[in-house]
Design brief:
Blueprint (H helix, E strand, L loop, with lengths): L12 H23 L2 H7 L5 H30 L1 H27 L17 H31 L6 H34 L3 H21 L13 H14 L45 H8 L11 H19 L1 H8 L4 H7 L4 E2 L2 E2 L7 H25 L9 H28 L20 H25 L5 H30 L17 H25 L14 H4 L4
Antiparallel strand pairs: 1-2
Helix pairs in contact: 1-5, 1-6, 1-7, 2-3, 3-4, 3-5, 3-16, 4-5, 4-7, 5-6, 5-16, 6-7, 6-13, 6-15, 11-16, 11-17, 13-15, 14-15, 14-17, 15-16
C-alpha cells in the first residue's frame, strides 16, 4: 500500500477476494434497491407515461455506466483502484441518503401513495430536481466504483502463479454471482415493499446496505494488494496517433531493429509487462520508427514523446483498437438485457400477478433471472467447461471468452422470441377496454419465467465472458479501462434502447394509431418490438462472428500462449 512489495502469505488471495465479493453483494443490493423498481416509481409517484418512464430509466442506467469511464480513468491514471473505489462508494452512499430524504419528505405525498391504487399528488420543479440530483449522484457513485472493484478483486490474485491464476479465473464467475445474489435480495424483499408503496423504506434499506459495504471495504484495507497507477493513458494514446501522423510519408524498413524502445527488458509504461510487437495496424509503427532527426534528438538527450514513442506504447494503442470491434458488437446485447428492467416489468404488470391472496411484484420476476445465473454458473464451471476440455485436441481451458460471448448472443435471441410469444398470448387474454390495466390479462405472470431464464443464461456466457476477456486482453496500465468497456457497452445499450423505443413509438403512432408501446399495452403490439430485437440481435451475431474470427490475442513477454484458429472462435 505504501510502495512496499506485497507479502504473498499476508495479502490478497481469497481472504481479500471474499471481502471484495461481500462488498460487491451489498453495493449491488443497494443499487438495485433503487434501479429495479425505478420505472414503477416514475409512473406511480411522478406520474410519467410508460414509454417516457422506460426512456428515463434507460438514460439513467446508461449514465451509470458512462461514469464507469470516469472512474476507470482516475484509477488507471492517478488514484489507483483502492482509493477510487473508496471515494466513489462515499458518493454512492450520499446519493442514496439524499434520495431517501427526498422521497420521505417531499415526493410521497399524500403519505402512503405510490402503491397500485393510490396515486401521488403533483410535485414542484425543485422537488423533481432534487430527485434527479440524488439518483444521478447514485449513478456517479456506483458507476465510478463498479469497473474498479472488479479489477481490484482480480488484482488480489497473481496470474503468473498457477494456483492463484486459476483462482483469478474463478473470481470473475463468483463476482458476477455475488452481484446477482445482491440483486436477488433487492428484487424480492425490497421490490415487494416498494411495490406495496413503501418506497422510503426500500430506499433507506439501500442506503444502509451501501454504508455497510463501505465499512467492510475499508476494514479489509490491510489485506489488499495494490498496483500503482501508470499515468494518463489518453496522453499516451494521443502521442502515438500524433507521432504516427507526423511520419505518414516515412518509408519503414522491414524488421524491428529500427523501432524505438526506451527499455529493452521492460515496458515503457511504468509497472506494466512488456507487450510484444505485432503486425496489425502497421501505420502506427511509424510512431516508434527512428528517423535521422530522432537520432540527433536522442544524442542531444531531448527526445520528443509527440514525435517518437516506444514500441510498447504503440502496442498498447493497438491492443485497444483490436478490442473495439468486439466491444461494439456487445452493445446490442445490452439493449436486449435492458428490457428486463423496463418493458419486462411493464409487461408483467399487465398480467395476472395474484397467487392465492398474494400479489407478486412484477419486478420480482427478475428473481428467476438471478436463479438462472446461479444455476448456469454452476453448470458451466462444473459440467460444460470440463466436458468441452475433454473433446479439445490439445490442453485448453474449455470454451474461450469469445466463444462464450457468441453463445450469449444466441441465447439472447431466444429470450426475445420467448418474450414476443408470451406477449401474443397475453394480448389474447387481455381486456382492451380497461382504464387502469394492471393485471388486466388473465394470463399468469409466471409465463414470463422462460424469458427471464434465457436472459440469465445469456448473462453467464456474455457478461462473465466479457469481464474475463477485457481484463485479460487490456494492457496492464489499462485494466480498469478494460472493465469499464464492459460497463460502457451496457451504457450505450441503454441509450440505444431509449433511442429505439423513441423511434418505434414515433413511427408506430403515425396516422393516429395507438403504436406498439402505448400507455395501455392492451391496445399496442409489444410483441412486435420483441421480435424486432430478435432480428437485430441475429444480424449482430453475424457481425460478431466475423470480428471474433479476425481478433488476435495480446502477447506479453514471458507469457506467449498460441491459440489455434479453431480454439479462438467457432460456432458450436
Amino acid at each position: 500500500m505504501r510502495g512496499r512489495p506485497a507479502i504473498r502469505g499476508r495479502t490478497g488471495q481469497w481472504t481479500a477476494g471474499i471481502i471484495v465479493l461481500l462488498n460487491q453483494g451489498l453495493a449491488t443490493l443497494a443499487f438495485f434497491g433503487v434501479g429495479v423498481n425505478l420505472v414503477l416509481f416514475l409512473t406511480r409517484v411522478l406520474q410519467q407515461e410508460n414509454a417516457e418512464a422506460a426512456n428515463n430509466v434507460s438514460k439513467w442506467t446508461g449514465t451509470v455506466y458512462i461514469f464507469s469511464l470516469v472512474g476507470a480513468f482516475l484509477s488507471d491514471s492517478y488514484w489507483g483502484r483502492y482509493k477510487t473505489c473508496a471515494i466513489f462508494q462515499v458518493i454512492f452512499v450520499i446519493g442514496l441518503i439524499a434520495l431517501s430524504l427526498a422521497s420521505s419528505l417531499f415526493l410521497l405525498n399524500p403519505r402512503g401513495c405510490g402503491d397500485r391504487m393510490t396515486k401521488c399528488g403533483s410535485h414542484s420543479s425543485w422537488e423533481i430536481g432534487l430527485f434527479y440530483l440524488s439518483i444521478y449522484m447514485v449513478a456517479l457513485g456506483n458507476g465510478g466504483y463498479q469497473p474498479n472493484i472488479a479489477t481490484f478483486g482480480a488484482d488480489q490474485f497473481d496470474e503468473e502463479d498457477p494456483k492463484e491464476g486459476h483462482s483469478k479465473v474463478s473470481f470473475f464467475s463468483y463476482f458476477y454471482l455475488a452481484l446477482n445474489i445482491g440483486e436477488l435480495f433487492s428484487n424480492t424483499i425490497l421490490g415487494y415493499f416498494e411495490d406495496e408503496g413503501m418506497w422510503a423504506l426500500g430506499f433507506w434499506a439501500s442506503a444502509v446496505s451501501a454504508f455497510a459495504g463501505l465499512i467492510l471495504f475499508l476494514w479489509g484495507t490491510p489485506s489488499y494488494r495494490h498496483f500503482k497507477p501508470t499515468g494518463n493513458p489518453l496522453a499516451r494514446f494521443c502521442q502515438v496517433i500524433g507521432a504516427a501522423a507526423k511520419k505518414w510519408r516515412v518509408e519503414i524498413a522491414p524488421g524491428e531493429e529500427n523501432l524505438y524502445e526506451a527499455n529493452e527488458k521492460e515496458s515503457s509504461v511504468g509497472g506494466a509487462r512488456k507487450i510484444l510487437h505485432t503486425d496489425e495496424f502497421k501505420f502506427l509503427d511509424r510512431a516508434a520508427y527512428i528517423t535521422s532527426r530522432d537520432l540527433n534528438n536522442r544524442k542531444q538527450g531531448c527526445l520528443n514523446p509527440w514525435r517518437l514513442c516506444p514500441i510498447s506504447q504503440v502496442e498498447e494503442v493497438k491492443c485497444i483498437l483490436r478490442l473495439l470491434p468486439i466491444w461494439l458488437c456487445t452493445i446490442l446485447y445490452s439493449v436486449v438485457f435492458n428490457q428486463m428492467a423496463s418493458l419486462f416489468v411493464e409487461q408483467g404488470a399487465a398480467m395476472n400477478c395474484t397467487v392465492s391472496n398474494f400479489q407478486i411484484p412484477p419486478a420480482g420476476m427478475s428473481s428467476f433471472d438471478i436463479l438462472s445465473v446461479a444455476l448456469f454458473i454452476f453448470v458451466y464451471r462444473r459440467v460444460l467447461d470440463p466436458l468441452v476440455s475433454r473433446f479439445k485436441k490439445k490442453e485448453a481451458k474449455g470454451l474461450t471468452e469469445l466463444q462464450r460471448m457468441g453463445i450469449g448472443l444466441v441465447i439472447a435471441i431466444m429470450a426475445m422470441v420467448s418474450a414476443g410469444i408470451v406477449e401474443c398470448y397475453r394480448l389474447k387474454y387481455a381486456r382492451k377496454d380497461c382504464i387502469h390495466c394492471d393485471g388486466s390479462s388473465s394470463l399468469s405472470v409466471f409465463w414470463q419465467v422462460p424469458q427471464y431464464a434465457f436472459i440469465g443464461a445469456s448473462e453467464v456466457f456474455m457478461y462473465v465472458g466479457q469481464l474475463e476477456f477485457f481484463n485479460a486482453q487490456a494492457p496492464d496500465g489499462l485494466k480498469s479501462f478494460g472493465s469499464a468497456l464492459c460497463m460502457t457497452s451496457i451504457s450505450l445499450g441503454n441509450y440505444a434502447s431509449s433511442l429505439l423505443v423513441t423511434m418505434v413509438v414515433k413511427i408506430s403512432t403515425e396516422d393516429h394509431m395507438p403504436g406498439w408501446i402505448p400507455g395501455n399495452l392492451n391496445r399496442g403490439h409489444l410483441d412486435r418490438f420483441y421480435f424486432l430485437l430478435a432480428a437485430l440481435t441475429s444480424v449482430d451475431l453475424i457481425l460478431y462472428i466475423v470480428c471474433a474470427k479476425w481478433y488476435k490475442n495480446i502477447k506479453l513477454e514471458g507469457k506467449i500462449v498460441e491459440i489455434s484458429d479453431e480454439d479462438k472462435f467457432s460456432v458450436l
